[in-house]
Amino acid sequence: MKKKIRRPSWDEYFMEIAQLVSTRSTCLRRQVGAVIVKERHILATGYNGTPKGITHCEVVGCLREKLKVPSGERHELCRGLHAEQNALLQAALYGISLKDATLYCTNQPCIICAKMLINAGIKEIVILDGYPDPMAKEMLAEAKIRIRKMKI
């Protein structure tokens, strides 16, 4: 008799990839990974960190940490891009439409990322952890973008 192999569900598969992507993060405060998927195909990935060619925070330090800025506030003081932003930019760079795609992300998007995801045409967001940004949740709900929290 053949042994039954336990395969991960599609949600588990893509979220585990998002977790792996997060290990490339150069952020000193939080490692986040994002994977954008459509029809079970990966369209783009992203992790949080500084733009290409810019010195990483581990070298120059974190201004938000130095100023004791709480999580979810004063995003403009960060040298880095969020994982969702990097995934959106990667898709744009290669001319990939994200209309009706699903975002798998290790954390709930902030308000800045939420607005970008709405305009990119993302239809669903699957997250592992929350983020202290109720306005983002409200705006995503108003845009009728489904958010699902899962456990691995």
Molecular structure report:
With about 150 residues, the chain is of the alpha/beta class. It is about 35% helix and about 20% strand. It is built from 6 helices and 5 strands, in the order αββαααβαβαβ. Strands 2-1-3-4-5 form a 5-stranded mixed β-sheet, with helices on both faces. α6 links the parallel β4 and β5. The protein is globular, with a radius of gyration of 16 Å. The protein starts with 9 loop residues before the first helix and ends with a strand. The mean pLDDT is about 95.
Structure in a nutshell:
With 152 residues, the chain is α/β, with parallel strands linked by helices.
Averaging pLDDT over every residue, what do you get? Answer: 95
Strand order of the largest sheet: 2-1-3-4-5
Give the total of beta strands: 5
Estimated radius of gyration: 16 Å
Largest sheet, strands/sense/barrel: 5 strands, mixed
Number of helices: 6
* Ends distance: 29 Å
Helix/strand order:
HEEHHHEHEHE
Residue stretches low in confidence (pLDDT < 50, at least 5 long) are none
Structural class: alpha/beta
Assign a percent range to the helix content.
Answer: 25-40%
Dominant shape: globular
Strand content: 15-25%
Topology diagram in text:
Blueprint (H helix, E strand, L loop, with lengths): L9 H13 L10 E6 L2 E7 L9 H4 L2 H4 L16 H11 L8 E6 L3 H10 L3 E6 L4 H9 L3 E4 L3
Parallel strand pairs: 3-4, 4-5
Antiparallel strand pairs: 1-2, 1-3
Helix pairs in contact: 5-6
